[in-house]
Protein: NADP-dependent alcohol dehydrogenase C 2
Amino acid sequence: MGNGPYSIKAYGVNGPTDGFQAMTIERRALRPDDVLIDIMYCGICHSDIHMARSEWGPANYPCVPGHEIIGRVVAVGSKVRKFRVDDFAGVGCIVDSCGTCECCESDLEQYCPDWTLVFNAPDKISGGYNYGGFSDKIVVREHYAIRVPPGVDLPAMAPLLCAGITTFSPIQHWKVESGQRVGVIGLGGLGHMAVKLAVSRKADVTVFTTSPGKVAAARELGAREAVLWSDADAMQRLTRHFDLIISTVPKGFPVNQFLNLLQVDGTLVNVGALDQLEDIPGMTLTSGRRSLAGSVIGGIAETQEVMDYCTAHNIKADIELIKPDQITEAFDRVVNKDIRYRFVIDLTS
Structure:
């Protein structure tokens, strides 16, 4: 195979309303600290949709999304020590950062002011902009690749690289433990992982959903209760009830109805919406010393931690495996909430 550069097959779009099509992209030649990964599986996140469709601002086209990547290492640079050929490896959102700021030195690369997203971001090494995991191969520095233990369900572990770490990180930061009351807003790719992870800590979990069909599903995942947003009586009953609420909804929504559910010193952490949150009265926060916070993915060390934690506790995503020619349909089904709970593309087919 050689040390590259590599011309590889990928699946992308040429505009915000286009369907996915096969295309050829270039991956850089291996540098001494790089690994070349033969991509086997890649999850589909709502963020992929937002970016490919220019919903978070104009995208660079062609756009090849994908940031929940798992595959097999097929080549390593001369200075690589973390991986050997034939190891399994994962790549999440982060493929570069400055390495010297306070955040990087604290294993918080996701808050580095100069971190690089795995796709549709300026490529500081090769120039132009980069491409994600809807492709056959990827080259990445070994520091930003995650060790995937042998013997795990590889496609079902791919979503841990975003959905898993995005919900694991606030559970870690706010120290969720046995007996705490945790609310989860939304039961999609992120939400179902939040439920599984909080339940594994023996927390008392309640799910909030707008989909009547997901009420029973939430209980099957281990939640004690599932409540429809429209159920005014249930919302009133749960006033001042929760220690922590994790919002996984991918778009802005009126927050005050959920802030009222926090007990004194409780926190609502937003991990899903990057646009404007609505209805946040100062009185609701001050009357209970409540906090409204945000969290985004996790650093590389913490992403390795969630991979190891889920392996040890037999936690994995609930997925639907698809072929590359089904990506366009899958995007539409995610928007229509027609998936339980994560699409994963089989790139070995």
